[in-house]
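Appendix B: complex inputs.
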Amino acid sequence: MREKWVACLPLLLLLVLLCACDDSKKGSTTLHLGPGKPAYGDAMVVGSIGEPSTLIPLLASDSASLDVAGLVYNGLVRYDKDLKLEGELAKSWDVSPDGLTITFHLRHGVKWHDGQEFTSHDVLYTYHVTIDPKTPTAYADAFKQVQKAEAPDPYTFRITYAKPFAPALDSWGMSILPSHLLEGKDITKSELARRPVGTGPYIFKEWIAGQKITLAENPDYYEGRSHIGRYIYRIIPDNSTMFMELKAGGVDMMGISPVQYQRQTDTSEYKKRFNKYRYPASAFTYLGYNLRHPLFSDRRVRQAITSAINKDEIVQGVLLGMGQVAHGPYKPGTWAYNNHIKDFDYNPDRARNLLAEAGWREKNSDGILVKNGKPFQFTILTNQGNDQRLKTAVIIQHRLKAIGIDVRIRVIEWASFLTQFIDKGNFEAVMLGWTISPDPDLFDIWHSSKTGPKELNFIGYKNPEVDSLLVEGRTTFDMGKRRRCYFRLQEILAEDQPYTFLYVPDALPVVSARFRGIMPAPAGIMYNFIKWYVPKEEQMY
Amino acid sequence: MAQYLLKRLIMMVPLIFGITLITFVVVHLAPGEPVQMQIAMNPKVTAEARERMRRFYGLDKPLPVQYVIWVKKIAMLDFGRSFAPDNRPVVDKIRERIPITLSLNIISLILEFGLAIPIGILAAIRRDTLFDKGMTVFVFIGFAVPTFWLALICMYLFGVRLGWLPISGLHSLGSESFTLIHWVQDMLKHLILPVSVAAFGSLAGLSRYMRSTMLDVIRQDYITTARAKGLPERVVILRHALRNALLPVITLLGLSVPGLIGGSVIFETIFAIPGMGQLFYNGVMARDYPLVMGILVIGAGLTLVGNLLADLGYALADPRIRHGQG
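Resulting structure:
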């Protein structure tokens, strides 16, 4: 008899596991909603897929490093909730009438976490170490435009450019490093990479490799003490695991996917315990054409392809509606974004007509368009590991088939993708994305001088009007003038369709409901983190 | 004996050279390079900045020169600094992860052998009973179920729904202020899920192997003799049969020793365990040459040492090997 029971064991186990999958009612303590009273204390645990590489932001280019370093350091300027520049360590700044000299007036009485006072000497040091050829940094180029940098007194910092350079202001958002800890030392071997010392709202406490980083609030922060006592950055490389940790209370904040937002966080219990936020991410996805390829040198063909693609369907199908259609390279709602551009909306008939105009009239037995005996066929390349891009490519493949274009899809590992295809110009069309920086300068991506190997205008777009607009836009500080340049740029790109701009996804952060004071804005939710609080009676840690 | 040892040691020198050469070539054959992986498609980076970073890492020198520089350092046991932006010594990075991977693997191995051996023995002596068949199904479920799926289901059941066990990581938040006993308890709790899921997945091979060697032994004449002597069945099985049946299993144990420092990427990723698997995987993805080559060389070195020890063991036991005949 005992043996029989043992034989059933595997089945029983399987049954238990299957039961674990469905129905998810579980009692949980009800939380007090309503704003509560602001209080100091508690901790926030943020989940992250990646581990920071170094906490010297000058040497880092990964988002995990910049997330953590952003709370420890300050720049001279920063972007406010509406993505406009405002002073941070600099109280204010003046631009000389000729646009060549910028003078920053620094805050008085700001202290480094070790008690030393912050002065213009730190800014000067940060500038010098950034342009030092021995420093392996990705951020030297904006600073190289500087002709002269000087610190006339401890609270003034002045830089002079050879020609007016509007993105310069943005580049001074770079984290300022403590000169008294770094000067005369090799920055690449500095222990600040693992134990940073900054001026920011949080002081570095501890880093357990591969597990977590702990920061504690800075009681002397010049903007006022942050309410949340500790910020814990937990490294959980798997998204499903992190999502379960969120449910179990081991993580207070994470970014979720559209499926998780729409389907897995809809229970009443979930809504009681968490707040979901949604705002456009600073990124867009596009289909880029190799303009050196004979298929795509004709503008009508590109316009036809855009007309044949139903962008709304992609937003619905791939993002489950958690995003919006993109018409150009800027983020909707920001000052450079042109609301009135005429994009090619979904219209297969227009697509067919445009293709006919371009000489694609006959079809072969498979229903594929043929010109001079050659079928209209091309390959969309995309990188491995991005499921959304692959799904988008499949939807496009289906839509283009309907108007007689045969599309193949190839997914390639990132390193080979860059070396074998992008750098060599060896592609027909690519499905990729760009992040949208708050400064609208796009010189490196669209200027005709940037079409060389390993440069970013890899589709080979050349348009003299765009070239002059890009130059004009980056050499004036006049917002009105800049806006006019970038509005016109968007019109031209919409007409030329060198890319088919596809969508701007939404950022979907989830935060435990015990955190109050979160106010979503164009800049996201983190901009006022030091004002977030947990009412005393709900504090967990 | 000393002569044999010397011969073996001398033979290891070209082998180590071969290992470094192959390691270097394979790593550099992969497309892309570290600088590119860090900054590709970043509009703020110009060609000049890229060159500057390449120079910093010494990637602008011809490959043979890079190889010589690297081997020279290795010869002095200097594995260099990582090409990741933190630029830390490779040895430090490995050192902080090896204890985790090693202890986790040893615990899983003990659990695996501790379960698989009794399962195999019982299945062999009760051959073709329901127990035998049930266990076969059981271990093969473990073998067939994808571990990542089982891991997620167990995390959901025990971590989210029942709340008995922590879901991921090695320590609870605030564990630094625990007392030692509490701290160890906390860590053991964190280890239950990953260790049992790992062991469950690998029961099949070992228990089936144990079962078949046991079956072979039981059919031998000396077992019949032992039974004929009137020894109790327990003694027959545990003292006479088991010892002989265990020998091949112990060889298997020896073979799994080099694997102890290798971690499983999928496993470590799901349970958020900072072990060697993740370190290596991320190193490969970022084309962090010194790190990848360092791990490979250390792994190969340990395998060589393991083999040497095993061979020495055989040589001690078997004079034919010692004298180089037969």
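The two ends of chain B are 17 Å apart (CA to CA).
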